[in-house]
Amino acid sequence: MTFMTAADVTVPPPEHNSRTITPVILSGGTGTRLWPVSRASHPKQFWALASRQTMIGETLQRATGDAFVAPIVVCNQAHRFLVAEQLRENGCEDGRIILEPVARNTAAAVAAAALLAGESDPDTLLWIMAADAAFRYPDRLPAILEKAASVAREGYIVTFGMKPDVPETGYGYIRTGAPLHPDRVEDGVFHVARFTEKPDRLRATEMLHEGGYLWNSGMFLAPASVMLSELEKHAPQVLDAVRSALANSERDLTFRRLETASFLHCPNVSIDYAVMEHTDRAVVIPADLGWSDVGNWNALWELGDKDAQGNVTVGDVVLEQSHNCYVRSEGRLTAVAGLTDVVLVVTTDAVLAIHRDYAQDVSALVARLKIANRAEAEIHNRCYRPWGFYEGLIQGERFQVKRIVVHPGQKLSLQKHFHRAEHWVVVSGTAIVTRNDEKLMLQENESVYLPLGCIHRLENPGRIPLALIEVQSGPYLGEDDIVRFEDTYGRQ
């Protein structure tokens, strides 16, 4: 199934300018069931999985237009520059980014966004959503959102219930109750009777046949003032801790860094448990958007464009006599023959091969890798930085080789190392290299040696990316062997 791009969808402007919609994007997940592509260092929301756009990029595009003010993104500190780059690429430079010092689930994230948005406009409607969901029919969203906004302005917390088409065991369910407006049943807005946790296959099948159940998308629309009052009523510990963390927060470049000590006191609880299961303001609107949380590789097979044999392929893939497979290659030629119902994912440093029925079990594999202290469990071979990225090419005893790419106008920190020397060879672009008291300009095929302990910096003054090969040598080559003296991005 081909997805429409979010840029093709226009949301009408709000009825009242004083009650605009504030998109709140929760970007705290790591998506371990989509390993080896999604890892803690670069999780699934920053990958183009369901379309040619990154998942958080699709989310930002859905929340762009006259109906919306600048979005608020809540994420962890490690992903702050990835989020900032996604905001820039999607024309949301004025977006606000809240940094959580530790993970405390969605109730804390929602509370932080509601408090921040409420400072300037308590009546703004918060459109709360995950950064990593996909919609097969985004063109249906504007009408549903307009209806939800009308209901939310009556003082309700509107949740978007997705119409189920299969007995899915990976989602929570919502049981619809009585119509919100008995005299306007055709409005299609209902009280929430109850929330049901992820069922087993038998119960999910029963609910599908019984009817009246919807998938819980985790997407909400509510006035900031209402969300805060319900947090105060049902989860005061969450609200108090986050309020203190925000009051004592620091501004770091374009980021709002929540204070650690206060935030640590916040209970680790979801907004569903903290508020939605207790509030009498919860209503649900059924929505047939072709929604998926893209929680595992089988979900991507279900969403993808299939060939005549039911296969979904991404990248440089060749298939022969294979059926109903999902095969993805992040660069290498991947050839498959004689397989059925298999997921095969190939990256530069890992290969995953599983039956599609075991897609939920990938997180167990990642857990085993973590126990074994395998770096591949959380870190990609390519590591992104605010100035660009680097990736490992070769590693041996007392040496390693990396490729470094620096974006135009960007520069690395002024730094030194205690345990390694480095040799840089420019492959393309122009480099300005600081080496102690020297400043050197290097062109393609020129090189420089940086002895152990020298203070150095790399800068790209040009208009095209700077690419170079770095050869490190020494007894210890870990990334933590960096002493920074000055950094454009405020890193320590």
TrEMBL record:
Q: Which InterPro entries match?
A: GMPP_N (IPR049577), Man1P_GuaTrfase/Man6P_Isoase (IPR006375), Man6P_isomerase-2_C (IPR001538), ManC/GMP-like_b-helix (IPR054566), Mannose-6P_isomerase_type2 (IPR051161), NTP_transferase_dom (IPR005835), Nucleotide-diphossugar_trans (IPR029044), RmlC-like_jellyroll (IPR014710)
Q: Which GO terms describe its biological process?
A: GDP-mannose biosynthetic process; polysaccharide biosynthetic process
- NCBIfam families, sorted: GMP_PMI
Q: Which residues form the Nucleotidyl transferase domain?
A: 23-308
Cite the entry's keywords alphabetically: GTP-binding, Nucleotide-binding, Nucleotidyltransferase, Transferase
So which domain of life are we looking at? Bacteria
Q: Which CDD domains match?
A: cupin_PMI_typeII_C, GDP-M1P_Guanylyltransferase
Q: Which family does it belong to?
A: Belongs to the mannose-6-phosphate isomerase type 2 family.
In its UniProt record, a GO molecular function of this protein is: GTP binding
Q: What is this protein called?
A: mannose-1-phosphate guanylyltransferase
Listed EC numbers: 2.7.7.13
State the Gene3D superfamilies in the record. Jelly Rolls, Spore Coat Polysaccharide Biosynthesis Protein SpsA, Chain A
